Amino acid sequence: MALLNDPAAVAGLMTREVRTGEREGTPTRIAIARRDYRTDQADLWNALTDRDRIPRWFLPVSGDLAVGGRYQLEGNAGGTVQECRPPQRFSVTWEMGPAVSWLQITLTPVESGTTLELRHEMPVDPEFWKRFGPGAVGVGWDLALMGLHLHLETGAAVDPAEGQRFPLTPEGNSYVRTAATGWADAAIADGDDTDAARAAGAQTITFYTVEPESGS
Q1: Rounded distance, CA 117 to CA 204, Å?
Q2: Which letter does DSSP use for residue 153 in this model?
Q3: What pLDDT digit, counting tens, does each position of 152-192 carry?
Q4: Which of left, alpha, beta for 92 (phi over 0: left; psi -120 to 50: alpha)?
Q5: Residue 91 in contact with residue 102, Cβ under 8 Å?
Q6: Which helix (H) or strand (E) holds 99?
Q7: Closest CA to 200 of 142, 133, 134, 140
Q8: How far, CA to CA in Å, does 63 sit from each of 51, 94, 106?
Q9: What is the pTM of this model?
């Protein structure tokens, strides 16, 4: 991919944090990703919220993007817009089938541009967490926010087919490995067992970087 000559360094631009929480009596885990973009707050807000621009780095989106409206990302999650405070913050539910989680994006101006903080709060599925830890969700967001990085740097649209192939390339392997290791470190910092977190990180790397066998 263009501008990704050093994928591990690009993955290293992300700060990753895991927290333990609770929502309406249900235990949750919270994956938090932060990174700076070399653009102003208004431009970054537009890239994240304009229905014609979102597909240039992420996925086509349909529905009502106003507060209270329902949105749907093509082939992915949908949900309800819960909060929108341009150009600072928006919050949505993140629904895939019966699973509901909560996503909040916050933008803060800094000297170098704008800091994006992504906060994804999920009910705890002990078996899924044991298998993959925060990396299954976290690495997916790493890849999406890398697409945002490429779009902002060039102004061009990211080729969806190239984006899908990327984790299977040597450069993509390096990017995913760095990201998954970072999420494992964040889980350990939040109190997860070190060996279990490392094993979950390895499973996440395999999930993203090994092409499924035909027919599986």
Answers
A1: 22
A2: H
A3: 999 999 988 888 899 999 999 999 999 999 999 999 999 99
A4: beta
A5: yes
A6: strand 99-110
A7: 133
A8: 9, 14, 22
A9: 0.93
